[in-house]
């Protein structure tokens, strides 16, 4: 099995911990953000035309906002769910390139995404780790069951798992809530050989701190983004441009 030449030459020119480590821990950790889905037609958050230019995150992406006005939050996520089902919204060349890499090296690559869309899955990624949750899933606040968000599911509906009433919420990590699977992510970051951050502004923690964690542990760190992120100076290597250009170029 050969690593795609760009990635293989990267590993070979940076032997570091990766080449000396025969471990089950992923050698390559990928982190994606909203920028990777931009060319598929989904808005980013902090670009001029981004999600937070139209609605206050405090109102729709915090537990307090949900407490204050669950109908408004429900409408916000329903609109994004419907947007995701637009036939024009399909995985792009960047999603597909990462899926190819994962298929080539299933045990070596961990894909962590801040995104709550399903474009990595639809591109063929076997098991993206959605650290901020998933738009197409609901969670019961009473029994923690996670279930598909069927179109007709309403906040007043009973939980299909425990029967509790009006306990359903989006299975999404809001500000002030702990991202999912952090222990697994941190274990991979402190043992990987290469960390690649793709399409994220480096604004939101703890994801924005992953590059420092990986670098301190000896990994090579790479940023692939439209423009320098807030953390660009922390990376060993940066390639700036649209994801559909820089990601396949890096992977191939
Ligand atoms: C937590 C909901 C603690 C889902 C989101 C220090 C340490 C720890 C926490 C904090 C800290 N400082 C502050 C905090 C609190 C807070 C935070 O980080 N605030 C920020 C605003 C300062 N963090 C939290 O609250 C997190 N929780 O820390 O919990 C805790 C501890 C113990 C117990 C309990 C709790 C929770 C964070 C998750 C919040 N949820 N969203 C949803 O609705 O989607 S965050 C939101 O931002 C999205 O999830 C999004 O994924 C995420 C990151 O944004 P990006 O993906 O980077 O998108 P952005 O628009 O910013 O940038 C896009 C980039 O793409 C740009 O750079 C652009 O140039 C580029 N681009 C554009 N087009 C393209 C492109 N690139 C390539 N090609 C293109 N075509």
UniProtKB/TrEMBL annotation:
Residue numbers binding substrate: 77, 80
GO molecular function: histone deacetylase activity, NAD-dependent; NAD+ binding; protein-malonyllysine demalonylase activity; protein-succinyllysine desuccinylase activity; zinc ion binding
E.C. no: 2.3.1.286
Any one of the GO CC terms: cytoplasm
Keywords: Cytoplasm, Hydrolase, Metal-binding, NAD, Transferase, Zinc
Binding-site residues for NAD(+), renumbered to this chain: 114-117, 199-201, 225-227, 243
Protein's UniProt keywords contain Transferase: yes
Keyword Transferase assigned: yes
Superkingdom of the source species: Bacteria
Binding annotation for Zn(2+): 140, 143, 159, 162
Cofactor(s) in the UniProt record: Zn(2+)
Domain Deacetylase sirtuin-type: 1-252
Cofactor info, note text: Binds 1 zinc ion per subunit.
Class of this enzyme: transferase
Catalytic center residues: 132 (proton acceptor)
Subcellular location field: Cytoplasm
UniProt catalytic activity: N(6)-succinyl-L-lysyl-[protein] + NAD(+) + H2O = 2''-O-succinyl-ADP-D-ribose + nicotinamide + L-lysyl-[protein]; N(6)-acetyl-L-lysyl-[protein] + NAD(+) + H2O = 2''-O-acetyl-ADP-D-ribose + nicotinamide + L-lysyl-[protein]
Family, similarity comment: Belongs to the sirtuin family. Class III subfamily.
Function: NAD-dependent lysine deacetylase and desuccinylase that specifically removes acetyl and succinyl groups on target proteins. Modulates the activities of several proteins which are inactive in their acylated form.
Record comment regarding domains: 2 residues (Tyr-77 and Arg-80) present in a large hydrophobic pocket are probably involved in substrate specificity. They are important for desuccinylation activity, but dispensable for deacetylation activity.
Protein name from the UniProt record: NAD-dependent protein deacylase
Gene expressing this chain: cobB
Residues included from the entire protein: 40 to 291 of 304
């Amino acid at each position: 099995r050969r690593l795609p030449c760009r990635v293989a030459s990267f590993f070979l020119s940076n032997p570091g911990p990766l080449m000396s480590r025969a471990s089950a821990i992923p050698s390559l950790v990928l982190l994606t953000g909203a920028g990777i889905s931009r060319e598929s037609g989904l808005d980013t958050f902090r670009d001029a035309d981004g999600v937070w230019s139209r609605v206050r995150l405090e109102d729709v992406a915090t537990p307090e906002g949900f407490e204050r006005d669950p109908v408004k939050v429900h409408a916000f996520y329903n609109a994004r769910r419907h947007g995701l089902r637009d036939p024009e919204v399909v995985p792009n060349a960047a999603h597909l390139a990462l899926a190819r890499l994962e298929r080539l090296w299933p045990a070596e690559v961990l894909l962590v995404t801040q995104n709550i869309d399903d474009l990595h899955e639809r591109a063929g990624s076997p098991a993206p780790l959605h650290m901020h949750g998933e738009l197409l899933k609901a969670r019961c606040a009473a029994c923690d069951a996670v279930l598909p968000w069927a179109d007709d599911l309403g906040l007043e509906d009973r939980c299909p798992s425990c029967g509790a009433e009006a306990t359903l919420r989006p299975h999404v990590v809001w500000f002030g809530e702990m991202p999912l699977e952090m222990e697994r992510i941190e274990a991979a970051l402190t043992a990987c050989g290469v960390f690649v951050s793709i399409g994220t502004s480096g604004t939101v923690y703890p994801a924005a701190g992953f590059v420092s964690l990986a670098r301190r542990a000896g990994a090579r760190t790479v940023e692939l983004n439209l423009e320098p992120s807030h953390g660009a100076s922390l990376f060993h290597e940066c390639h700036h441009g649209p994801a559909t250009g820089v990601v396949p170029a890096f992977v191939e």
